[in-house]
Amino acid sequence: MDNLSFSIRNLTVSARSKILLRVEALDIPYGCHTAVIGPNGVGKSTLLKALIGQAGQGEITLFGQAVAPQLKQSKVAWVGQHGSYRMPLSVHEYITLGQKSSGKLFQTAAPLPPAAQELLEVFDLAGLPHKRVHDLSGGEQQRANIVRALLQNAPVLLLDEPCNHLDIRHQHSLMRYLNRQTQRFSVLMVLHDLNLAAQYAQHIVLLNQGRVIAAGAPKAVMRLELLAEVH
Ligand SMILES: Nc1ncnc2c1ncn2[C@@H]1O[C@H](COP(=O)(O)OP(=O)(O)OP(=O)(O)O)[C@@H](O)[C@H]1O
């Protein structure tokens, strides 16, 4: 149990009497970068939603405890597939949104904490702290989402297609950064790019038609016959 983040047993996610996802047993290791792969519409995002308690029924534990709203809030940071930027926030305000240490919803006037400044530099946003988030490009917005999630300092980071909108340099830079941080937190991400998954993930979950086809080390899962069957 110590080396697991999520443990899933008998999970079923249904919508309009159709089963979208059925997982009998799946363990996600801790201290590791896990990629969930598979074609469109096979249940990858649904799996992530189930892990944060937004969908499905079954037994899901995180660090050995049933996933409850409080546990989720303190242990999991999340970047979904579709960002929402209706509020006119600056990058500075957005990435520090809801930070508990400030005691305020936004940290408008306060200088950015060093950790935030460092992440803005790592993710190439250092020149834009006062720009409105809704004026950023798609890739800049995605990087701001990732910085915001990293600043939650959660032990588990869930990312749904984090490479969406990122150019190739930023894709590799993100993956390298995350792999350097596996002592601090575990990453579970949905990825479409099989090359990125093979190059950077230490654990891979392959889904097809709402089922786990294989899970384990990249060499065991990224086999041509398995991928050809699914794709
Ligand atoms: N609320 C819902 N009601 C009905 N069907 C849904 C609902 N949510 C998801 N689905 C369906 O469940 C299936 C899995 O969706 P999901 O978003 O998990 O796929 P995915 O593997 O993440 O796909 P993609 O790679 O295209 O993002 C899809 O066929 C989708 O249309």
Automatic annotation (TrEMBL):
Domain named ABC transporter is located at 6-230
Which top-rank group of organisms is this from?
Answer: Bacteria
The Gene Ontology terms for molecular function here are:
ATP binding; ATP hydrolysis activity
* Keywords annotated in UniProt: ATP-binding, Cell membrane, Membrane, Nucleotide-binding, Translocase, Transport
Alphabetical list of SMART domains matching this protein: AAA (SM00382)
Record's InterPro entries?
A: AAA+_ATPase, ABC_transporter-like_ATP-bd, ABC_transporter-like_CS, P-loop_NTPase
List the CDD domains: ABC_Iron-Siderophores_B12_Hemin
Give yes or no: UniProt keyword Translocase: yes
Give the protein's biological function: Part of the ABC transporter complex HmuTUV involved in hemin import. Responsible for energy coupling to the transport system.
The molecule here is called: 50S ribosome-binding GTPase family protein
